[in-house]
Amino acid sequence: MAWCKDVEGTRLLIAPDSSATGSSGGRLLSLCHPKSGQKTCYLLVDGVLQELNWLKQSYKSWFLGNYVCEDGSIYAATPIDPVFIMLPIFEEARLKKGEDPGKFRQLDEIIFIDGYPGYQYLLPLAENCMQVVCEVK
Q1: Are 128 and 71 found together in one domain?
Q2: In this protein, which residues make up the domain named Rnh202 triple barrel (predicted)?
Q3: If you compute the radius of gyration of the chain from its CA atoms, what whole number of angstroms results?
Q4: I need a surface site. Which of 16, 23, 24, 126 has the fewest CB within 10 A?
Q5: What does the angle CA 24 – CA 26 – CA 32 come to, to the nearest 5 degrees?
Q6: Could you tell me whether strands 73-79 and 48-56 are parallel, antiparallel, or unpaired per DSSP bridges?
Q7: Domain boundaries, position 34
Q8: Where are the alpha helices (DSSP H) in 47-103?
Q9: Are residues 59 and 109 in the same domain?
Q10: What is the pTM of this model?
């Protein structure tokens, strides 16, 4: 994932406890940010998509067991509506040209994005998102 390259040691992540719901844990996904277009890390836990945000404050440290995170950085997982992630993909999938309103395409074809295999895990969420913002046949 882009956020953990060259990161050594333990990091602190604040996220929902997946063991409380009985799930096996979450999945880190590398997706395209809807505004910037840059690769961004997201967390998918129990069908809820969450964006990972990196926060760093000066002169802070975290004590994690026998480890000290000296730089004071922390990752926080905040829920995000999957519609915001899927909207640019749906817009591009229309294949709109001039006055032509666009074409209907299969969801499996729309959700396949070269270089971003994480979108495949969003297929169940994409079906619900699509009905909110698109005409579905």
Answers
A1: no
A2: 25-81
A3: 18
A4: 24
A5: 155
A6: antiparallel
A7: 1-80
A8: 82-93
A9: no
A10: 0.72
